[in-house]
Amino acid sequence: MSSLSRELVFLILQFLDEEKFKETVHKLEQESGFFFNMKYFEDQVQSGEWEEVERYLSGFTKVDDNRYSMKIFFEIRKQKYLEALDKQDRAKAVDILVKDLKVFSSFNEELYKEITQLLTLENFRENEQLSKYGDTKSARSIMLLELKKLIEANPLFRDKLVFPGLKASRLRTLINQSLNWQHQLCKNPRPNPDIKTLFVDHSCGPQNGARAPPAASNSLVGGLPKGGAFPPLAHGPFPPAAAPTANSIASWMANSNPPAAHPAVAAGSAALSAPSNTGAAALLKRPRTPPANNSTLDYQSADSEHIMKRVVRSGGQAVDEVTYPVATAPTHPSALYSPDDLPKMVARILNQGSCVMSMDFHPMQQTILLVGTNVGDIAIWDVGTKERLAHRTFKVWDLSVCTLPMQAALVKDPAVSVNRCVWNPDGTLLGVALSKHMVHIYSCAGGTELRPHLEIDAHIGGVNDLAFAHPNKQLCIITCGDDKTIKVWDAATGRKQYTFEGHEAPVYSVCPHHKENIQFIFSTAIDGKIKAWLYDLMGSRVDYDAPGQWCTTMAYSADGARLFSCGTSKEGESYLVEWNESEGAIKRTYLGFRKRSLGVVQFDTTRNHFLAAGDEFQIKFWDMDNVNLLTIIDAEGGLPASPRLRFNKEGTLLAVTTNDNGIKILANAEGLRLLRNAESRAEPRTFESMRASAEPSGKPMVGMNAMVAASASGGPSTSVVSDRISPAVTMGGLGAMDSNLTVDVKPRIEDVADKSKGWKLTEIMEAAQCRTIRLTDSLPASKVSRLIYTNAGIALLALASNAVHKLWKWQRSDRHPSGKATAAFTPQLWQPASGILMTNDITDTNPEEAVPCIALSKNDSYVMSASGGKVSLFNMMTFKVMTTFMSPPPAATFLAFHPQDNNIIAIGLEDSTIHIYNVRVDEVKSKLKGHTKRISGLAFSNSLNVLVSSGADAQVCIWTVEGWEKRKSKFLQGQGGRPLPATGDTKVQFHNDQIRLLVVHESQLAIYDAAKFERIRQWFPRDSLSAPISNATYSCDSQLVYASFCDGSVGVFEGESLRLQCRLAPSVYLTPGPSSSVYPLVIAAHPTEPNQFALGLTDGGVQVIEPLEAEGRWGLVPPLESVTNGAMSSVTSSAAVTEQGAR
């Protein structure tokens, strides 16, 4: 069904609701499956109308669709069963058990047996789990709360729980518009015509009373005079769903290889390219003026009176406007969001020093802001502390990459501006598009250290936009420029992968996206053309005209479901619209822009709810579902005519440019708390030293200091997309900017010395100095061999040495609404109703001597595990074994899911080989040989497309994922470059940037650059942490490394330099006495809370530890030159430290 047909169903639902056709409206909801009426569902459940409850549900889901649906139907049928037992109606209870509940026995036989046993009890409340069952009404209410949660979490109900925000009687309004148009086309229009039917088109009969011609001869198209201003319509307002138009987005997405040539969309069709003065959208806004003395007509129902309104059209002609009788407002709920959710309070003011051209908040760290300016500078700000963390002026890193045209352009005019700066999706890289040919890509460690990664001479002229995408499961950079092309580059190597040609004017912006498995790019040019491209060389798939037909940017809502564009015409007319992708048409146009915008209006989206744009020296906000302005703010004044703006990921902060080269940070209530927390946790930092490290060594630098002076005299260079460049700043402003830059670039050596003297290692010796909790455990104690958090962060899963898994879950409550793992609340040791334990296969093996391994699926539904026997796949809800495979020998010793395909698993084995196993076809696809002892670690890199393995032979190997070939290998080395004995396990884990690699051995921590396979940092146990390392892991944001030691201590290291910043003594979580020999075997980091970790202990205990709420972090980051207890600084690898090379 097409999108318009779907919308027609919603209009009919509204009409039926207004006319009080109660049964019919719910029948249509169920049959169409477009809108799930939660209020109606609640009423039926509370009334105990179980047949209607299941019938209504059947329009949206079936029992076996997914685990959420299964749970929904089970809860309903269980309640029906318990009510029958409560009424002592045994016959009905048996009937429900056999007909309704039997279906669940195949999924959980133990639970079905337990339910059956309730029949033997005089009162089912004798069962311990049902002892708190109250009366029927309260039980239904409790069940409803659970059902609502399941329905909201069920993906099958996504986008079906909120009724569209429609104006009252929308269908009547459309009918009135149609009748008015028909009446305007009458040859002999009568005043105040009496409409008796909608079954045929309206036509006024001759004045002498003759009958009107038959409907077939007075059609809307047939009544048009030739050459008239009213264009013929290609089809009605609701086209057939079977055949999307050739140029619609639905068409080219459905067809992976469409023809290269694409015909233009016919004028008048419901497509983007329809001219504004002839398209169907224009007819809705400006119907043709009727002939003299022609009045519009009123459509009335049998039980309604005429409602006539007099309106004056342009030209002063008075006409009667039809209004269909309006009923009461619809009772369907619509999405309403408070303007209080918007960030409107000025919380911070930053002085950038030069005109800000582009901004982007970090995708992970909500207070980190990237800024690019009109003199080519980029800066990274922590808006919470108002501290500039990093700053780079424009320089050419490597003259050899510059083409002759670029060199000539720089000689002619050295001024360079940033057109766009943006983070990649995980915040480990940032891209800068410059106004002269060039793209700079930096790698970034936590917003504090920038390293040049790629320099690309990308386009002839300006590079107007830049974006990151993941086509073919590899990170790519997408650019567009003045040379009318779009280009795609490999983000790891900088190699060009695609060039898209077809625009006839400079390309202004790009918007990459994907729908299911189809990856595509929208592009807009300054001639107003919108094109779409697949990652092939088949040409553009669509060719539309953007409203305004000049500079337009496009963006999707955060959930990727809705597409918007904002643009400004050469005359200053601005347009903000939402597109209907499946129809290739504008869905709605937002109102509220001034007649003549000064500059190109910029916009952004947030929370899937709101739009914001800078216009008239103000910030204007819209609800996505309402074309009218929601609210306007001026941010306490000082904004330019068309301010640039950017939301952070959560929509709690909004960065807005000012006319004095600054940035205002606006916040809502949650944003203010975020800023206060950042400020309270602020610490003295040293960033000047990072500037030197960011300059690439051994490469000639082209000095561009003269560019600032050139900018002062001539202003920034103006590319074809001139409206992206704000008016040139004044001479005084540039002078102030120069002085600021000069002061900022000089390293403050005396400050560094003071900070080094004042810094002290944080030592935590008592439990009162942090928050810690030992998880309650009623099962037999056995040392914890493996420990992982669930990906949602709400549970901890431990694998003990006796092959038994234990799962602790934190519960949501009023006091703990997030339900996430924390030391502040006690979790529950969770077991299914059957009481079974999740136990690995231990046939013909001693689990205490085996090397256990475990891996969790991305959605937390399944866990794969082994303890010396077969590999078992468990259902995390029921603890049941779904399947087993890979019988020993050799036994599995490490498991890793392929990051893009859960069906592919890398299995490290006891015999030193690695098997690439496909679960779906139960087949080993490849066997990798390179180690000499058992495999103890595996890690995939999305960015590098490699698998890294480590073994008990102290060797690390890199394998290509495409051909599973060994690329390189190295043996670890000890202090002084001495080789390590081949003992002890070696573990590996990738940094969030997917390039740096943490290598853990009992003798050391090391960080490698996996792309170059070079060691960057190395740390050896010493002084207060001199015991062997038992385990280590990155924090979720890779800013910290947590390491546990065999004496029970825990060290918290800075993730970039491996400098120790905090030490936790064993006394923090162990009581003195016999437990002195207890220590952590494994350490796990929370997936979303960077300062929380958990320990799995040799006595079988699991401990969760996090800093005090007032502290918020584990000590202060040590200055670069700090030395504690004589020798706590990490070792930096250099050419003097040799390593055993690749074999």
From TrEMBL:
Keywords: Repeat, WD repeat. InterPro entries: CTLH_C (IPR006595), LisH (IPR006594), Topless_fam (IPR027728), Topless_Znf (IPR048419), TPL_SMU1_LisH-like (IPR054532), TPR1-like_2nd (IPR054080), WD40/YVTN_repeat-like_dom_sf (IPR015943), WD40_repeat_CS (IPR019775). This is CTLH domain-containing protein. GO terms for biological process: post-embryonic development; regulation of DNA-templated transcription; reproductive structure development; shoot system development. Coiled coil: none annotated. Residues 34-92 form the CTLH domain. It comes from Adiantum capillus-veneris. PROSITE patterns: CTLH (PS50897), LISH (PS50896), WD_REPEATS_1 (PS00678), WD_REPEATS_2 (PS50082), WD_REPEATS_REGION (PS50294). WD repeats lie at residues 456-499, 928-969.
